[in-house]
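Ticket #4471: structure output looks truncated?

Reporter: J.K.
Steps to reproduce: submitted the chain below (228 residues) through the standard prediction queue, then opened the result file.
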Amino acid sequence: MPITTCVFDAYGTLFDVAAAARQAAGEPDCKAIKDDWPLLAEHWRLKQLQYSWLRAVADAHTDFWEVTQNGLDWALEKTGHDGDPVLRARLLALYWELQAYAEVPEMLATLKAGGLNTAILSNGSPDMLSGAVKSADIEDVLDVSLSVQSVGIFKPDARVYDLVGAHFGCTKDEVLFVSSNGWDAAAATGYGFTTAWVNRGGEPMDRLPWEPAHVLQDLTGIPQLAGL
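Returned output as attached by the reporter:
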């Protein structure tokens, strides 16, 4: 079955999750992190993901914005910056304006020009996703942003992946699912999607029952994988 629908994870896939810490580090009020912002960003993202998994397992769902704040608070304490409310507020504000990776607008425009459906499928809450999409100016090349909030559980629960077929009326084998998280792409493979893992950092393959069908360094090859 030809691919009709391309679905993207948001954070780390379309949007650079390190952008908030990187930008803040260059600002006078946040110069405390000018030397260790990469470590702060890494801790923040890891805890954000870990807390989403733990909440899913414990049936303790909450808004992804709370998870994001919890992850940042842990990361700030870990790096010795937890006593700086100005820094915390600035980092959280910047998370609503994350930069898209450079290839994203043209890649999505190519998919739309080719007649494909395009969507985000994310742990992010609807308002977070709306802010990121508007900031990146990619509203015109995305059909919809699907949030886990509508099913009340985080990825990789199958009910999250069910949202794609429910919205577009497509079958699983019509979907190309793209994520920068190896575990997300692997789980989507197990679900039945054709998958691509955007492995920007050259990370090892996760040891899971499934593997992504494709591994890419960035998103420029997605239109070709979709058959364009």
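Triage note (M.O.): checked the attachment and the full token line is present. The mean pLDDT is 96.
Status: closed, working as intended.
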